[in-house]
Amino acid sequence: EAGKEEEARRRVAEERLRIARELHDVIAHHIALITIQAGVAGHFLRGRPDQAEVALGHIRDAGRTVLDELGPLLHVLRQSGDDKTDETQPTEPVPGLSRLGGLLESLTAAGLSIRQRQAGHPRPLPTAIDLTAYRVVQEGLTNAHKHGPTSEADLLVDYGPDELRIRITNPLDSGPYPAAAMGTGHGLTGMRERAHETCA
User: Fold this and answer.
1) What DSSP character marks residue 176?
2) d(Cα 34, Cα 110) in Å, to the nearest integer?
3) How many CA atoms does the CB half-sphere of 34 hold within 13 Å?
């Protein structure tokens, strides 16, 4: 009996960690885009109202997207834990690399110049790996946009024979790199945890 309770507690803890990562990845990305576009709208509001209107449109789109992606997560949180769940409802968000184009478009609209390359032969991926790959690209490019000295980044998605490699690079400041910025973000920690769990 004690063993069953311990296993149940472990599963609850794992699910909480998974949901925490999903909440961070979904919300932080879109809030970053909304913040950037709000700044753009404020900058152009008086002199270029047409450009301000475009930025407000991007804010509206980002808000709708985050609400759409939060829906399945909130559904999971509302579940009582019994076995009688509605199987017709989605239980988790499952974006994958097939939706990479939309992600890159939203970041480009927010002002990030992305040079994308693809190597190898694209193929269907297991759902967990596909979701992890999408979230890694999302978090990596969002971080490059928020913290990089220039609004540009390079993305490589490499389909190897038995592995998938993702590489995101962006220019660094010419000055000394601030120590406080290294290894303190929940997003980077979540990316490492997600990749390790998916590949375990």
Assistant:
1) P
2) 8
3) 14
In eight-state DSSP terms, residue 27 is: H
Reading the block at residue 159, the tokens are 């389909």
Neighbours of 61 (CB within 10 A): 18
- Rounded to two decimals, the pTM is 0.70
Q: Locate tokens 């909440």: which residue?
A: 23
- In 3D, which of 27, 32, 19, 20 has the Cα closest to residue 141? 32
The domain segmentation of the chain, as residue ranges, is 1-93, 94-200
110-134 tens-digit pLDDT: 889 999 999 999 999 998 899 899 9
pLDDT per residue over 147-159, tens digit each?
877 889 999 999 9
94-200 carries CATH number 3.30.565.10:
yes
